[in-house]
Design a protein that fits this description.
The protein is mainly beta. It has 2 domains: about 10-150, Roll (Pnp Oxidase, Chain A), CATH 2.30.110; about 175-215, Single Sheet (Rubrerythrin, domain 2), CATH 2.20.28.10. The protein contains 3 helices and 12 strands, in the order E-E-E-E-H-E-H-E-E-E-E-H-E-E-E. The protein has helices at about 50-60, 75-80, 145-150, and strands at about 15-20, 25-30, 30-35, 40-45, 60-65, 95-100, 100-105, 110-120, 125-135, 175-180, 185, 210-215. The strands form 3 sheets. Strands 2-1-5-8-9-4-3 form a 7-stranded antiparallel beta sheet. The protein has a 3-stranded antiparallel beta sheet with strand order 11-10-12, with no helix packed on it. A hairpin with a 3-residue loop joins strand 8 and strand 9.
Length: about 220
């Protein structure tokens, strides 16, 4: 099987949120879709290792926030490469309570869902949620998985359902790699040392979390 054929499938970029004993939690998801129109039902795949997975199981509800190309890319770093077990992902994150659920407001739309069924796989659970509240937030182009990779140069978390280990590619210049989210800087300015005020455009950490990789 050629696993790269799976790259031809189309995905969006979303943040799934729920409650953990009154505390908002969430993670990034790239496998979500509408499966019925009436009642409107959404399916989302969440890795069992994600803290948000247990929160959805316990709470029975989740919200899905669809990000846009204008959304702050640091949201992906914060919600995709840190854990709600030890990090307050909502600290400094713009959000609101909609349908009694925490919703990311820096996106194009949100959907509040009640879990009505689940499908189990060895690594992920697919939660089927009946939508009971939804709203458009702004007029912007929804972010696609392709845009995240090709324009933002983002990486995929090892817990994502679409994760595939990448093979190193040959290159003639140094690449600075973020050890937190995997972002790679290989721009036109070949920094021998990153500037003191350098921050990762995806997860927001400083230069001390970057390592230089010679190809």
């Amino acid at each position: 099987m050629d696993p790269t054929a799976l790259f031809r499938l189309s995905y969006g970029v979303y943040i799934v949120t729920s409650w953990n004993e009154g505390t908002p939690v969430g993670c990034v998801a790239n496998s979500a879709m509408q499966i019925t129109a009436s009642p409107a039902t959404i399916a989302v795949s969440v890795n069992k290792q994600n803290f948000t997975h247990k929160a959805i199981e316990d709470c029975g509800y989740f919200a899905l926030s669809a990000l846009s190309e204008k959304s702050d890319p640091k949201l992906i770093g914060r919600f995709g490469f840190t854990s709600s077990r030890d990090t307050d992902k909502f600290a400094g994150t713009p959000y609101a309570i909609k349908g009694k659920l925490p919703v990311i407001t820096d996106g194009v739309a949100y959907f509040c869902c009640k879990v009505v069924a689940t499908m189990d796989t060895p690594t992920h659970t697919v939660f089927l949620g009946e939508v009971y509240e939804a709203e458009n937030l702004q007029r912007a182009k929804p972010m696609t998985y392709a845009y995240y990779h090709e324009v933002l140069k983002g990486k995929t978390s090892a817990l994502a359902p679409t994760y595939q280990a990448e093979e190193p590619e040959g290159a003639e210049k140094a690449v600075w790699v973020c050890t937190i989210c995997g972002y790679e800087y290989d721009g036109e300015v070949p920094f021998e040392e990153l500037p003191e005020d350098w921050v990762c455009p995806l997860c927001g950490v400083g230069k001390e979390f970057f390592k230089k990789r010679e190809n």
